[in-house]
Specification:
Strands 1-2-3-4-5-6-7-8 form an 8-stranded parallel beta barrel, surrounded by 7 helices. The chain contains 11 helices and 8 strands. The protein starts with a strand and ends with a helix. By secondary structure, the protein is of the alpha/beta class. Strand 1, helix 1 and strand 2 form a beta-alpha-beta unit. The site of erythose-4-phosphate (E4P) has 11 residues, from helix 7.
Length: 221
């Protein structure tokens, strides 16, 4: 499963990218808005920093305008993936983009039925929003498992990207469900690396090592 960062913050991206585990980035208008800079500048920095897929979201509502915006976004870099929403206009624009060989990520997907539509237009990625399904008092992980199973039995090549992940267990469960990609915010990435026993073990190793150094110094060895 590839790991993506769900952010538009170049500082967060640089930090996690340095770990050597980052395969891509997803952005959306809300995340870009948090940067308080020109979207073009924000996207350029991210596209330059990350070698893998970077999703850039369309903001036009109507199919023709969304298609044109999608073509412009795709031209920004070879690793740009165009995000279109799961709406009739998003499907129309998305189909035109995929027919031209442009990689699209169908976003705001909340049901297996919507995921079937995304696969049928030849999307490169489909993004079910797990956490937001849970917020609506439904089972996001169940929807993800159903989507992965449907794609498997139907032989759809669209990659399933588990989005709106809120904690490390969401990432683990997405991996078990067979998601191709998990995108998560910076804080989930940092929680994923942490374990209290790792911290305690390291502290103990450090103390024992220091004690040995002191012993050797004392003995003049
Ligand atoms: C995915 O591409 C979306 O940007 C994201 O995962 C949405 O997550 P949220 O529900 O935490 O806003």
């Amino acid at each position: 499963m590839r790991l993506f960062l769900d952010t538009a913050s170049i500082d967060e991206i640089r930090e996690i990218n340095a770990w050597g585990v980052l395969s891509g980035v997803t952005t959306n208008p809300t995340l870009v808005g948090k940067e308080h800079q020109s979207p073009d500048e924000v996207w350029k920095m991210i596209l330059d920093e990350v070698h893998g897929d970077v999703s850039l979201e369309t903001t036009e509502q109507e199919a023709d305008a969304m298609y044109k915006q999608g073509v412009e976004l795709a031209q920004k870099a070879t690793n740009a993936v165009v995000k279109v929403p799961m709406t009739p206009d998003g499907l129309k624009a998305g189909r035109r983009l995929t027919d031209e060989g442009i990689k699209i990520n169908v976003t705001l997907v909340f049901s297996p039925g919507q995921a079937i539509l995304a696969a049928e237009i030849g999307a490169y990625i489909v993004s079910p929003f797990i956490g937001r399904i849970d917020d609506a008092a439904a089972d996001g992980m169940h929807a993800l498992r159903q989507i992965c199973e449907i794609y498997d039995v139907q032989g759809y090549e669209t990659e399933v990207l588990a989005a709106s992940l809120r904690h490390p267990m969401h990432v683990v469960e997405a991996a078990l469900a067979g998601a191709d990609i998990a995108t998560m915010p910076y804080d989930v990435f940092t929680k994923l690396v942490k374990h209290p026993l790792t911290d305690a073990g390291l502290k103990r190793f450090d103390a024992d090592w220091e004690a040995l150094q002191a012993e050797l110094m004392k003995g003049g060895a």
